[in-house]
Amino acid sequence: MAVRPESIEEWCHLVPHLLLEEGWQTILENGSSSMSCCSSPWGGSLLRIVLRDLLVVDPPEDPADLLVRPETKIWSWQVRPELSAESCTELSELAPGDCVMHLWGRWKMLKLLDVVFGCLDHFSHHATLRERLRRNFPERGDCASVIHDVRQVLDWITFTRRQPDRFYTMQLLCGIPSGIHPTQWVVPHLRLTLDVVRSTAAWYLNMPGCVSQRRFDQTFYVVLTMSSFKRGWPMIPTDDPEDKDVTVIQAGQSQGLANWVQYVPLQHGHSHFCLSDYLQLFLERMGETMPVHQSLDGQDVLPYQCVVAREHWCRMHERFHPAFALQKAAYRRAKGGKTAPKIVEDIAPRLWIARYPVQFGQEWLVKGFGAAWRTGRTPAESPGQTAPSTNNRATLEQDASPSYGPTTSKRCCYHCYRQFLVPFDDVSPEDGSTSFCSETCAERAHEAQRRREDAKQKKLAEMQQQT
């Protein structure tokens, strides 16, 4: 039996036809709505409801922002509970767009689905659930929300994709413990259920306060970017004044930040520099704590960026900037020159986007991702090309990579940041070497990613034991 998935990437890995028409047994079709099912790799069945031509009156500029993060749902429930169809309280924020919470839905469609299929009983009372929001997967502009409970009983996916104009397609998928064998007497109830689900989805996308929710969601986090560290890594406070490489800044004596040394990732258990690791250590040396993240909505930001909640950053503002000014002074004294590392706020996130064409199933999966090209076409759609085999490396592609000349493209290594030129002839959907300058850098970056995922799973396991 397959392991139950927890993210949309894992769902697409275990159910390759998840977002396709093939592989599903049609139960009912009613105009722009349909209901179908298939067997589940981990037992039971999967129910899918497809709702096409849903009108969004005031859609977001970016279609990937149609659904909001679980943190925003919690905020909305606390501010205006009368407008929310679900009550929720936060237990833990694992990452932006990834929360463990108590959730209770009051929708009529949930009761109908539970009566007909017996699949959503856990929404009828407060349950401990984990929700993950993933944007721009598997295509740019897509948005997916994956909910599962800590006991691995409930599975629920909401997936949206924009159509022309202001219309959207929404797919709802849920796991059912047993098989689905609809009889003749239940068909009228299925039609009623499908109509209720469609009307509920249309209300949810246009409910009162949805525009303010999306606006709040877009400003919930602030992206921090470090720049101007061309002469080496930034400085970090130290308690060891006897260190031979220490730089003394007398202006920091009153704050306990007089002694500074260069930050070296390997000395602190990290294989390469990540701003989130550095900033957390910096705050710890200041005597402060604040959650700092290296991902946003299921996508990693570049190592010289990190993500923090705007509320926490505003609270830390007054103390952080004077301390970081001492860091700049120590850097200039130790390295010379007039420039020093600085932190810039509200820079657009630079995301590593892995595009995953699910129509080729598991043959496309390499370390959890598929290789696709920036044109949006899969290799099999291009003349004379076929889908790649599983021997190819995954392609992690930086968004909006600039071009530097008619025959080359300039890239930056994800691990060591060394810039290198790649001929356009070598930049193909079947070549993953453009993400890293060497195999060593690729292996180290993947290992760092695995460690972050292990730490997140460990934190979740500790929370489950406490509850």
TrEMBL record:
**Polar residues composition-biased segments:** 383-406
Show the ranges annotated as biased composition (Basic and acidic residues): 447-461
Q: Looking at the record, which segments are called Disordered?
A: 376-406, 447-467
Q: What is this protein called?
A: Slc9a8 protein
